[in-house]
Amino acid sequence: MRYFLTEEQQMIVGICRTIVEERIIPVRAELDENEIFPRDIIEEIGRSDLFRLFIPEKYEGMGTGIFEICLATEELSRGDMGIATSFAACGLGIIPILIAGSEEQKVKFLPQVASGSKLAAFGLTEAEAGSDAGNIKTTAKKDGDYYILNGTKQWISNGGEADIYTVFAITDPGRGIRGASAIVVEKGTPGFEFGKKENKLGIRSSATRELIFTDCRVPKENLLGGEGMGFIIAMKTFDQSRPVVGAQALGVAESALEEALNYSKVRKQFNTPISSFQAIQHMFADMATEIEAARALVYHTAKVIDSGEKNVSRLSSMAKLFASDMAMKVTIDAVQILGGYGYMKEYPLEKMMRDAKITQIYEGTNQIMRNVIALDLIKRGVL
Amino acid sequence: MIRIKIVVCIKQVPATTEIKIDPKTNTLIREGIENIINPFDSYAIEEAVRIKERLGDPDTEVIAITMGPHQAMEILREAISAGVDRAILLSDRAFAGADTWATATTLAGAINKIGDCSLVILGKQTLDGDTGQVGPELAQKMGIPFVGYVSSVLEINKNNMKVKRLMEDRYETFEVSLPSAISVIKDINVPRVPSLRGKMKAKSAEIPVWDSEILGLNKNEVGLSGSYTQVVKIFTPRIKHDTMIIEGTTDEKVEHLYRILKESHVV
Amino acid sequence: MEIKINRETCTGCGLCKKVCLYNAIEIVNSKVVINENCVFCGACVEACKFNSIEIAGLLSEDKKDFSDYGGVCVYLEANGSVISDVGFELISKGRELADRLGAELSAVAVGNSIKDGVVEGFRYGLDKLYLIDNPVFSNNLDDIFAIALAQVIKRYKPEIFLAGATAFGRTLIPAVAAILKTGLTADCTGLDIDNERKILLQTRPTFGGNILATIVTRNARPQMATVRPHVMEKKIISEIPADYENKIEYIKINDSDFKTKYKLVSVDRELDEKINITDYDVVVSGGRGLGGSDKFSMLKELADLLGGVVGASRAAVDSGWISYPHQVGQTGKTVNPRIYIACGISGAIQHLAGMQTSDIIIAINKDPDAPIFKVANYGIVGDLIEIIPELIKRIKGAKSTA
Questions:
Q1: CATH 2.102.10.10 matches C277-401
Q2: pLDDT exceeds cutoff 80 at C58
Q3: Which chains pack against A, by 3+ Cβ pairs within 8 A?
Q4: A339 part of contact set with chain B, CB < 8 Å
Q5: What pLDDT does residue B54 have?
Q6: Integer CA distances (angstroms), B255 to B249, B262, C385, C393, in order
Q7: Top-level CATH class of C72-255?
Q8: Lowest-pLDDT choice from A207-211, B234-238, C372-376
Q9: Which of B76, B208, C195, C227 places its Cα 20 to 30 Å from the Cα of C138?
Q10: What percent of chain B has pLDDT over 70?
């Protein structure tokens, strides 16, 4: 039930749908089983100009806003959430450049991402710094024309596959959060290595690796904004990216509902399709309603952001929180509707359920989302 | 960097995969059948675009043409979104009812008007006509060599090309000089997903319409008038047998199957 | 030429609209209106219960005089020194047509060192053989073969010319028709003579085999058709006559007239796989139900035991389980074997288009509702993984006790 899409937005959805149907669905089970990062599909996504959605026209992009990114991410998630994650994580990696980068930096990094020739990634999380993002320990010590990076980032999506990494490191120890800065590090820089690929519960077609910095010398021109701006850049980035996670949740929930619906019409027990049982029907009604509610919230949030509104943290967190909790519930229910078959890898539902879980965790756990929402309420009122 | 003109001839056809037969009247049901670009033509378009990319000159032009009614504009726009540079619709009431020869006459007229064309690419055959005749007839009319069932364009430059074609039991590799025409099979490539830029270009593209006058063709050279063959009857095939479902245990089924094969003298 | 609606008898019932595949029919104020999308295929004329549709100009008389054309001529295609079976099938059919017309049946063969092979044609009822035997024709090249055939036809003026709808035939013969400026009907499955007008009625499948169309050639000769291999039956009706040499005309050519524009660089015959699937009596085909490429070796074993070849549905080829030359269907090859065994193939229309004329179709599928069961002669609802190995055992068992 998507309406009021402009012709261009319909084109975007159409292209994603073609990629999902012709390229992703035939191989998604294999990608999941063998943890394969599908470089050829990512390249096809690049050739279709979809990475241009992240970037303004000035830098060879076609980006008009978060809403279009949500549409694309939602549609890709209907195919495979891991591929959608690889897509969205690339956006996450360059939003800091859009927010705080200089003209030179934008001209240097953005066009290559727009064309799909280079992927980006976002490097904040560490072993001791998940929800407590302020506790990062990676350092970036100024040395003449360089910053020397030391430390390890953990669980970085597109880690090892991306060429451009926005990394958050402490430039001024002792100042806590205010001592963190954002800096762009390119793959191949000496002293920058990757850990092994993580073996995950879900989104297994997305490559997740540690970023290991050992006396890695990064040109000072790669610093985004100024020293100490790191944390603010990160928070502003999440304001824009959280609805996109919501869109991922939407996509996987929709496809789970569709699979369960189709199955229920064909599966007969007691000589009748299970879709005729009220127990099942009520589940469908609840699932579909929750999806629509999440869609309304995610789309609304995206449009508010695109309208230029500054204070979007609360809404953004709500969209991610609500949609991800919804997706978890819907995918679990979808497995339940398929019963024993839902539990078998032969059907795509169990994978959708495993994939959905991450949306409740990354880009800020849903517990952190609740903190953000509550604190904003207390500070600014109901509005 | 090599600059040439490549013309791709495409056709809009009913999606015959969707056809159902009304069991009572034994006739076709058209309900909601979409018109699509002939599937083999998608491979032709992709190959043309790939050849352009290989040759490296951005001024190499890939031009898609189709003979059809105005609704065939859709597939020309699709071709542009898939990377074709420009497109032309050949449309005229006089073109209707054309057999493969009259179609070849019309297409040749357009290609000659475009001028200076080094390579003509077609799909192997259409879903509705299923003849595969237009390519060789067109090439003969234009006096250029034709290679059908091309599974790979191995080499190409301004003056000649090397292609591989698939026959029933072998592949044959030919060198042939340009200008030439080829028809391509499914194996030759995987058509790309249209790009967003391509779709937007397609949406606003100006597609000229050429009629028989613009092509300088006499009305009795084209369409049904210009055809040497004519359909006199259309009917649906009747399936002559009843299906027998073999029942029983696995062993019984296998035994029954074995008997059928034995009676047919293949064992 | 135009399509006319008799507005008095048209009831606006819409039967015609239901069968129009080109969106060319609209019902306006309860009467039919035909728009510019019409391609004159004639489906509506057939469908209308009230005879309200007429394509004007249908079956118009030939304006020209073709009395100098006579006889039926058949192309005997050769591959190296092997004469394609379809040539003999066409001699048998040609014999029948020639007898209906009271005319002569001839054949033309072009190649190098093919005489012994083509002389076999006399067993099937040939009156005359035109033979062009020259090293220039060692390889099957479209341009010079087209010139050769066109020369023979121009000289001897048969009223009907038939050739096999082989891969070579389907590109060669259109070139011949274009040189001669005459009509050609592709891939016919039926040939007949109209008793009144003594013209050839050429029937062929269209729309992936969902529709059959009967076609005639007007205002041009010869009436040319390529014919689907293994549809016509070849029948030996006599020994090679003792005086066969008198029935052969050896045609000399000027080498300079036959300079080819094609340079054949190499020929690659896939020796470990049988890919000429159109030439076998038995095809064992696998589809999505096979689940993987490894199962195809099982089908190959069965095919080998039955003297046949392995085919595949588009789903199997697209999944990379087997190579494209094995694909049967609308975007693959059309096969016409005596026995077609469809394993794990659902029977989508685009697959049926490539095999539904097989003599006996046996389908094995887990899904009782699979469309393939509607066209199969015999169906087994079951797991091919169980059935095929057992069938192989049964056949091997019988062989060892035989």
A1: no
A2: no
A3: B
A4: no
A5: 94
A6: 10, 10, 16, 11
A7: alpha beta
A8: B234-238
A9: C227
A10: 92
Residue span of the structural domain in which B141 resides: 5-226
Can you read off the two tokens belonging to residue C59?
């079956």
State whether the Cα torsion A72-A73-A74-A75 is positive or negative.
positive
pLDDT class for A345, splitting at 50, 70, 90?
very high
pLDDT at C83 over 70: yes
What whole-number distance in Å separates Cα of residue B68 and Cα of residue B38? 13
Q: What is the CATH number of the domain that holds B148?
A: 3.40.50.620
- Structural domain contains residue B244: no
Sign of CA dihedral B157, B162, B164, B165: positive
Residue B171 burial (CB count, 10 A): 18
Outline which parts of chain C fall under CATH 3.40.50.1220: 277-401
| B25 within some domain | yes
- Tell me, what's the pLDDT at C375? 87
B240 Cβ contact partners less than 8 Å away, ≥ 6 residues apart: none
Residues 352-371 of C with CB under 8 A from B: 353, 360, 362
What's the complex ipTM? Answer: 0.90
Look up the pTM and report it: 0.87
Q: Which residues contact A155 (CB under 8 A, 6 or more apart)?
A: A125, A198, A208, A210, A362
What is residue A383's predicted lDDT score, i.e. its pLDDT?
Answer: 82
- Assigned token pair, A257: 């509902």
Q: Does A26 touch chain B (CB under 8 A)?
A: no
> Which of residues 56 through 85 in chain A touch B, CB cutoff 8 A?
62
Q: Which two tokens mark A251?
A: 């996509």
In a domain, B261, yes or no: no
**Greater confidence, B51 or B243?**
B51
Is the CB of B171 less than 8 angstroms away from the CB of C22? Answer: no
The H or E element that residue B198 is part of is helix B196-204
Of the candidates A341, A329, A318, A339, the residue with the CA atom closest to the CA atom of residue A252: A329
Predicted local confidence at residue A302, as pLDDT: 97
Band (C60; pLDDT cuts 50, 70, 90): low
- For residue C207, the model assigns a pLDDT of 78
pLDDT in tens, C213-258: 899 998 899 999 999 988 898 999 999 999 999 999 999 999 888 9
pLDDT band at C20 (very low <50, low <70, confident <90, very high): confident
Q: Kindly list the residues from chain B whose CB atom is less than 8 angstroms away from the CB atom of residue A50.
A: 196
| Helix, strand or coil, per DSSP, at residue B232 | strand
Q: Which residues of B touch C380 (CB under 8 A)?
A: 245-246, 253, 257
Strand partners, C286: C312, C343
A363 annotated active-site: yes
Tokens of C4: 């006319």
| Number of domains, chain B | 1
With beta carbons less than 8 A apart as the criterion, state whether C123 and C236 touch. Answer: yes
User: Does residue B123 sit within a domain?
Assistant: yes
| pLDDT of the residue at B35 | 87
Find all residues with CB under 8 Å of B128, minimum gap 6, and list them: B13, B14, B16, C21, C206, C207
Give the tokens for residue B48: 């043309």
CATH 3.40.50.620 placement within chain C: 72-255
Domain formed by C2-56, architecture: 2-Layer Sandwich (3.30)
| pLDDT per residue as tens digits for the range B121-142 | 999 998 888 899 999 999 999 9
